[in-house]
Design goal:
By secondary structure, the protein is mostly helical.
Length: 216
């Protein structure tokens, strides 16, 4: 299942606005709390999301998403305050939004840079998913409830594609409040329940048994 270009572009930009607002809202105590991303504080999670966008804006695609690159993104921003990081993110969004909105269907379907994902559109969808998921990591660490914004639905759909690419399925995701999403040819096992819990399970953040699934 593929989300339309206009939905992904608008959803991603909205997500970044919410991410900036979340960063600005955090006090020093929340900023320094450990997150469920091993070895990262809330500050480090925010630094990765901001640094990743900086790399994309600058055309630094090689190794994007690898442990080495994500650690560099974090190290370059270590010691910054929430306001400083939010200001950087705000500038990055302002600089890149016009280019993103101007993408046409041909560019959207073109191969992603450095072969990271099949298409440029897949890459933007992955960035939306990453921003929503890491915002959820930060919210959990800060004791805030999960945000059930459009990014949750986009994350379910993106994860379905990743699971299919990894050979999981056939299955049908029939999660609460989200349209049914086939994995593989569809059919097969039906996965029901809370979509937020599904995202946590599918990303290794929660026990698969909570949704009646196994480690695969």
């Amino acid at each position: 299942m593929t989300l339309p270009r206009e939905e992904v572009v608008g959803g991603f930009l909205d997500e970044l606005g919410r991410f900036e607002a979340l960063v600005r809202s955090l006090d020093e105590g929340a900023w320094e709390r450990p997150s469920r991303c091993a070895g990262w504080r809330v500050a480090d999670v925010a630094a990765h999301v901001t640094g990743q966008l900086a790399d994309v804006n600058a055309g630094r695609f090689e190794g994007l998403g690898t442990p080495e690159v994500t650690e560099r993104e974090v190290a370059e921003r270590r010691g910054r305050t929430p306001a400083q990081l939010a200001d950087e993110l705000h500038g990055l969004v302002a600089a890149g939004a016009a280019t993103l909105v101007a993408l046409d269907d041909e560019a959207w379907k073109s191969p992603a840079p450095a072969g990271i994902l099949p298409t440029l559109g897949d890459g933007v969808e992955a960035l939306w998913y990453d921003a929503w998921l890491h915002a959820d990591d930060m919210r959990a660490a800060a004791g805030l409830p999960p945000e059930r914004s459009p990014g949750l639905r986009a994350s379910v759909i993106h994860l379905a594609a990743l699971l299919e690419a990894g050979g999981w399925g056939p299955a049908t995701l029939a999660l609460d409040g989200v349209e049914e999403v086939p994995v593989g040819s569809g059919g097969g096992r039906r996965v029901t329940g809370d979509p937020h819990q599904f995202v946590l399970v599918a990303t290794g953040r929660a026990d698969p048994a909570t949704l009646g699934l196994d480690e695969t």
